[in-house]
């Protein structure tokens, strides 16, 4: 299929891009286009104008700033996946990115574009929640910061205003161990369910646990029931099994053409088990 007619503008600065979005409520920001353009082809999105922010230099930084990993929204997913800095200070991000679509998609898709798309099965959204990411957005009223867990409000909907652009992702650098697993019919398919995990330890005892599930509801979300099971325990087989069961029992997944609720709960339990086993062997 072909998209409906639209205009195309390539602004020269972030400020100009914000003004263009503010001037037309039906305008959409275009970064890598790996999510938006297919939706336009299926007539699920009908923007009047595409504001191409994919080449704005303000959005391409990838750096360490004291205790924070700062990633510009326009950084390509493949660049983050292969970055030595990401591998060193935030390996969970690289683990999650390896499951995003295929190599060609990650070479065009951007970090900010995936988060702003807010797909309930998006690996990057789950990783952002598990890592307590702060999302910086810029609009006509200036910059503001929103927690990743508060960004995703419904399937393909975020808390961003129409004139706001997601410009930066800030990931706190912590001494944590990570794991990521998902269950999909084929590599590159949308996940039936998945889990991103970030755990901190004092000796062999879990002191802080952050787990986020994907593909199990209207949005990516944290799994507090599983987190509570893990806190204050050694990460042994009993703890991992109990946390995986808690994650599955707490989920209320949808019944759709991809899987029924029981299948998704079983997939979530398996994904949680695998992700936590990765942490245990990290």
From TrEMBL:
InterPro entries: CO_DH_flav_C, CO_DH_flav_C_dom_sf, Diverse_Substr_Oxidored, FAD-bd_PCMH, FAD-bd_PCMH-like_sf, FAD-bd_PCMH_sub1, FAD-bd_PCMH_sub2, Mopterin_DH_FAD-bd. Residues 1-176 form the FAD-binding PCMH-type domain. GO terms for molecular function: FAD binding; oxidoreductase activity. The keyword Calcium does not apply. Keywords: FAD, Flavoprotein, Oxidoreductase. Gene3D superfamilies: 3.30.465.10, CO dehydrogenase flavoprotein, C-terminal domain (3.30.390.50), Uridine Diphospho-n-acetylenolpyruvylglucosamine Reductase, domain 2 (3.30.43.10). PANTHER family: XANTHINE DEHYDROGENASE SUBUNIT C-RELATED (PTHR42659:SF2). This is Carbon-monoxide dehydrogenase medium subunit.
């Amino acid at each position: 299929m072909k998209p409906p007619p639209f205009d195309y503008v390539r602004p020269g600065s972030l400020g100009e891009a914000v003004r263009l979005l503010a001037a037309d409520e039906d305008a959409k920001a275009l970064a890598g286009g790996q999510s938006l353009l297919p939706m336009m082809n299926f007539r699920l999105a009908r923007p009047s104008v595409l504001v191409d922010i994919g080449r704005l230099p303000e959005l391409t930084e990838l750096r360490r700033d004291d205790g924070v990993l700062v990633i510009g929204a326009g950084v390509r997913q493949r660049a983050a996946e292969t970055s030595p800095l990401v591998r060193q200070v935030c390996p969970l991000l690289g683990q999650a990115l390896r499951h995003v679509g295929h190599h060609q998609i990650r070479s065009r898709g951007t970090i900010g574009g995936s988060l702003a798309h807010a797909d309930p099965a998006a690996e990057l959204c789950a990783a952002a929640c598990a890592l307590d990411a702060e999302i910086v957005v810029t609009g006509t009223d200036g910059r503001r910061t929103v927690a990743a867990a508060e960004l995703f409000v419904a399937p393909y909907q975020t808390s961003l205003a129409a004139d706001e652009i997601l410009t930066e992702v800030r990931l706190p650098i912590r001494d944590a161990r990570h794991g990521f697993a998902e269950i999909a019919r084929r590599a590159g398919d949308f996940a039936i369910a998945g889990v991103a995990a970030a755990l901190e330890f004092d000796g062999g005892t879990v002191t802080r646990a952050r787990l986020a599930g994907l593909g199990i509801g209207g949005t990516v979300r944290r799994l507090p029931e599983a987190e509570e099971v893990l806190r204050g325990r050694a990460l042994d087989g009993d703890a991992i099994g109990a946390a995986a069961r808690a994650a599955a029992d707490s989920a209320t997944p949808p019944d759709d053409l991809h899987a029924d609720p029981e299948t998704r709960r079983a997939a979530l339990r398996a994904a949680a088990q695998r992700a936590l086993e990765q942490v245990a062997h990290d």
